[in-house]
Recover the amino acids of this structure.
């Protein structure tokens, strides 16, 4: 990531901490829209500058909060199977591709995730490599990453392969999950991956926060870290999330409202000495989810 003592731009995109002035394109946009069009009301809206690895973590944490989690009991099995409408493995792979292969030369660029009642769209600024069409992504195709240093860094972490099979794995995961394969398109200088699934069954008139949180990996991390009273900073660090407001709104507050966490100083919620601990109900929920 450096030569003759000077770091490459790829290092800033991958590991940087300050972006706004010189790297405004290090931007992740997250939006939940009412209905099936982007012209609908915005029910949740976030725009944050962050490095590439954080984009993948933050996007997945946000999606797991936006998607409903259903449960079923497959025939012949006694274990409950929890299911998101779109498999998280497919979403993660699509987000990784969007982050790695986008056009970083455009200062107005970004990665965007838009959730509608009937689908999830993952968008990244840039075009497909020369000679590759959107239709090619649904079949065997060569790997020709436009950002080899960034793609190489993700490969060395074990997050991706280097054989151009990412989109094929996305398709396989969706078919295995029982939903139709996603579509791949180029639209106005962007690559768009669309997953069709009922995010809001029946296109309800409004979206309300989940009263009972689902035991996602981030929720589990918080409940485990709060076994012995912990600060907000310690709980947030346990999830790997960067943004304090996002952590508070999407994890901490719902867990408090559900009675799975409690404040050690309930009458002073903003106290610098405030700590949070897992309640009996939270421990019971955590134990049941591990069965």
């Amino acid at each position: 990531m450096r030569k003759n003592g000077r770091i490459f731009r790829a290092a800033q995109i991958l590991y940087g901490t300050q972006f706004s002035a010189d790297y405004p394109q290090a931007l992740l946009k997250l939006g939940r829209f009412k209905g099936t069009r982007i012209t609908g009301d915005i029910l949740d809206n976030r725009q944050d500058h962050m490095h590439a690895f954080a984009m993948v973590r933050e996007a997945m944490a946000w999606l797991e909060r936006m998607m409903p989690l259903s449960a079923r009991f497959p025939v012949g099995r006694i274990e409950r199977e929890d299911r998101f409408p779109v498999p998280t493995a497919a979403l993660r792979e699509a987000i990784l591709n969007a982050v790695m292969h986008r056009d970083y030369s455009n200062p107005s660029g970004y990665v965007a995730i838009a959730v509608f009642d009937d689908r999830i769209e993952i968008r990244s600024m840039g075009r497909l490599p020369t000679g590759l069409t959107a239709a090619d992504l649904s079949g065997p195709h060569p790997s020709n990453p436009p950002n080899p240093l960034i793609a190489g860094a993700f490969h060395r972490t074990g997050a991706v392969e280097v054989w151009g099979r990412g989109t094929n794995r996305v398709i396989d995961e969706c078919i295995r999950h029982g939903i139709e394969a996603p579509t791949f398109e180029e639209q106005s200088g962007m690559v768009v991956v669309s997953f069709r699934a009922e995010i809001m069954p029946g296109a309800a008139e409004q979206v309300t926060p989940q009263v009972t949180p689902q035991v996602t990996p981030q929720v589990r991390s918080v409940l485990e870290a709060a076994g012995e009273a912990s600060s907000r900073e310690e709980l947030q660090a346990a999830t790997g999330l960067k943004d304090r407001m996002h952590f508070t709104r999407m994890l901490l507050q719902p867990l408090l409202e559900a009675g799975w966490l409690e404040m050690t100083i309930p009458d002073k919620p903003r106290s610098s000495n405030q700590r949070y601990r897992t309640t009996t109900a939270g421990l019971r929920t955590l134990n049941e989810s591990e069965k």
Remarks:
- Residues 217-289 form a domain with the Arc Repressor Mutant, subunit A fold (CATH 1.10.10.10).
- The chain has two domains: 2-196, 217-289.
- The CA atoms of residues 229 and 277 lie 4 Å apart.
